[in-house]
Amino acid sequence: MIRVSVVGAQGRMGASVVEAVEAADDMELSAKVGEQDDIASITPENTDVAVEFTVPSASLNNVLALVAQGVDVVVGTTGWTDAKLAQVTQALDNGPRAGQAVFIAPNFAISAVLADYFAAKAAPYFTSAEVIELHHPDKVDAPSGTAIHTAQAIAAARAAAGGEPMPDGTQGEAASRGQVIDGVHVHAVRLQGLNAHEEVLLGNTGEQLVIRADSFERSSFMPGVLLAVRTLAGGGHAGLTVGLDAFLDL
Amino acid sequence: MIRVSVVGAQGRMGASVVEAVEAADDMELSAKVGEQDDIASITPENTDVAVEFTVPSASLNNVLALVAQGVDVVVGTTGWTDAKLAQVTQALDNGPRAGQAVFIAPNFAISAVLADYFAAKAAPYFTSAEVIELHHPDKVDAPSGTAIHTAQAIAAARAAAGGEPMPDGTQGEAASRGQVIDGVHVHAVRLQGLNAHEEVLLGNTGEQLVIRADSFERSSFMPGVLLAVRTLAGGGHAGLTVGLDAFLDL
Amino acid sequence: MIRVSVVGAQGRMGASVVEAVEAADDMELSAKVGEQDDIASITPENTDVAVEFTVPSASLNNVLALVAQGVDVVVGTTGWTDAKLAQVTQALDNGPRAGQAVFIAPNFAISAVLADYFAAKAAPYFTSAEVIELHHPDKVDAPSGTAIHTAQAIAAARAAAGGEPMPDGTQGEAASRGQVIDGVHVHAVRLQGLNAHEEVLLGNTGEQLVIRADSFERSSFMPGVLLAVRTLAGGGHAGLTVGLDAFLDL
Amino acid sequence: MIRVSVVGAQGRMGASVVEAVEAADDMELSAKVGEQDDIASITPENTDVAVEFTVPSASLNNVLALVAQGVDVVVGTTGWTDAKLAQVTQALDNGPRAGQAVFIAPNFAISAVLADYFAAKAAPYFTSAEVIELHHPDKVDAPSGTAIHTAQAIAAARAAAGGEPMPDGTQGEAASRGQVIDGVHVHAVRLQGLNAHEEVLLGNTGEQLVIRADSFERSSFMPGVLLAVRTLAGGGHAGLTVGLDAFLDL
């Protein structure tokens, strides 16, 4: 049994992780740590992997504390910068245990991670590519971080393959054409009833490839979280890893 | 047999109409009139319905000439203003024959006409609605005229039903949110391989209605053109009619 | 304020109705009635509209009891036959109050009701039409009752318009072509993560119309339930009405 | 310039290849060979790569003849069996030139090839997967060969990853559930206006991944044909290669 502790257990995501761990046949919940609790209670003696889902302002310190105690960590909190990641890498180098691992994922939905990965793989073979992301209307940022990443990945893959700019005969101002990120048009829809969705359209003369990821609810992140926990518990991923695609056999 | 003459027979759309008329069991082609030909050759003696597909600068004069000769007209050329339409109505009032009819459609694709109509019907029952139009990259305007019309129709239907503004928590600038037409967000995709497509998304808590029209090629307009020809030939539509939905049993 | 009582308040749907009524600005919850409670406690003195969401074996008796007491009823329970409906009509004729009303809907999701209605409206104008329904894998029947209804409505609309059979060159056995209902092919997908979805595809030469309804979760039925409650409370719908489309301005 | 000869130049696909070669900046058309012509006129002196698009009954002999003359071949004709492929391999072993190459693809649409490949890559990470293929109504077989291949590839990938059977609570007969190929449900839609389309749905709790390939017209195969011609002309692919994915950087 993999012993899992959850940091941020009172938050919406943390509570979902607690449920998912309790429902998994190969895991047992070791500790639920909230704001009031001492993170130092999580140690290699009681925990194989800690899952951290808190807020950007708290996450770095949580991760550094867990690493200092020798605990492997799966991190779902967002807001990581290169500077913060460097601190984690340094902490891992100085950790008390050999082979310590931290895994950070901007998105744990397997469908979203695969859509992003497949879009970049396909991009060099198509004349055109655009990204449409669709979310609930409470979302404050547009486009989503995932859509920005997808657009950048498409642009990078096309550039690496020596591709030409995409054709676009639009004349004059055209707000309807969306936001252009590294040459890729990105559109954001906000619709009551939706949760988090992304669609990538790739076109050649006479053909189209559409890759769409739908995350209907929070539970959609749990298969990805459990996959990350199992992967760290299995060993062999020492150091810092970013992005769930690293743990998929692609 | 309905005797049909085609004005603009050398253009791409006109040539398609010629083909469609020749293929229809209940029609026969009476005359093909191009730029060099005299439109006065089209008369009630040889023609039941004329189909006019030319350019905006020529269309009004063509229609007025045909009406003056007593010929019913189906018009596919775009660029009609209220002033031009008023001239057609006046010409019809003064026409040589009782019950003369002119029919003008901005879009002959039945799928597009129905999508536009259904979207407006559904709009009052949903919290959110957005429009995505997708076209080949050679298109110079964005968004499409059809998408503008759909957005306006959605907005009008919601206003008539006393609806509230749509929720949108987006903060700051967000070019990805598209162009806002009467409060409805409209997005335009330009993709190699596509022709002319429109998708309307309507959302309530927990549910979504999607209405999508795909026009894969020019031939998609022909069923609508033939439907209009048959309707005029059947009589009972004296005067000026605009929009194919008027001829559908909705 | 519309005073609403909920019969079957402990069930999943009933509990959702209780929540939705409590959240509505123009309604107040009068009574929650479960299996152990006496339905006779619901009277015109405390209730404007009762909402009944129980099981097919109990629903008829509940509705007859409520009608006998002079209470208007919105019914979400399924399993209604012509014989049962006739009993409700007779009870309404003999009810203690003039203008009493019962409303029964096989489906309260507005998107699904509109998709079904639009599909039938559009059907006469297209050469081909097929239905794909998609549900969670726990569903025991296939295809869904809604998909059967949609296929029948498409077939009836085509027949009324004198349409020809749809073209289909498939040779030999072809289980992949789905179930044929009144000449309309119906396909059922069962996929983990989905809830209740239906897509109608209509095709002509060169064009396609797609109408899709997504019900992501149980809450998707509540706008339809509240719409029915408000419509009955507004009066003018005496007698038995079946189907939410009767209450939409279509 | 790559010198290309086309065998089957009078057929629909062959004629499209002729057009595509003539339009390509880096190719020149060397010879067009039809039924009446002598295939022996194609030699390494005038041709770098021959493209063969004929009929299953003629293709093997054409390929063997070209190989015997030392010409590399891209084959688009279908109907290849293991026995036929073995004859090609043997011919290549005995060919007059070192490094001779034959490339055979069941499908040259890049979108379809990628959809098939991505579906198999993703399959092990999802609880459910189903395939929907959609074609014009003149198609005589159902499901399509591509859909069968996709279903088999999904099943193989799941089996290799030790996956469990997909959940399906359907009780009783259910023709609407489609054809089951290696445990994967496959649905075939036949709709006027469509050409060749395939959609793969993959589902987990709370999420869905959709991969869709649209081939709108015959021209959609040409980018794949030219890619294969360029790859053979570039050398390094001696022997027999089957499937366009072998020439994509995946």
From TrEMBL, chains A, B, C, D:
The keyword rRNA processing does not apply. (S)-2,3,4,5-tetrahydrodipicolinate binds at residues 136, 145-146. Residues 114-236 form the Dihydrodipicolinate reductase C-terminal domain. GO terms for molecular function: 4-hydroxy-tetrahydrodipicolinate reductase; NAD binding; NADP binding; oxidoreductase activity, acting on CH or CH2 groups, NAD or NADP as acceptor. Its EC number is 1.17.1.8. CDD domains: DHDPR_N. Keywords: Amino-acid biosynthesis, Cytoplasm, Diaminopimelate biosynthesis, Lysine biosynthesis, NAD, NADP, Oxidoreductase. Its main location: cytoplasm. It catalyses: (S)-2,3,4,5-tetrahydrodipicolinate + NADP(+) + H2O = (2S,4S)-4-hydroxy-2,3,4,5-tetrahydrodipicolinate + NADPH + H(+); (S)-2,3,4,5-tetrahydrodipicolinate + NAD(+) + H2O = (2S,4S)-4-hydroxy-2,3,4,5-tetrahydrodipicolinate + NADH + H(+). The active site is at 135 (proton donor/acceptor), 139 (proton donor). NAD(+) binds at residues 8-13, 76-78, 105-108. PROSITE patterns: DAPB. InterPro entries: DapB_C, DapB_N, DapB_N_CS, DHDPR_bac, NAD(P)-bd_dom_sf. Gene3D superfamilies: Dihydrodipicolinate Reductase, domain 2, NAD(P)-binding Rossmann-like Domain. It is found in: Cytoplasm. Homotetramer. Belongs to the DapB family. This is 4-hydroxy-tetrahydrodipicolinate reductase. It comes from Bifidobacterium bohemicum DSM 22767.
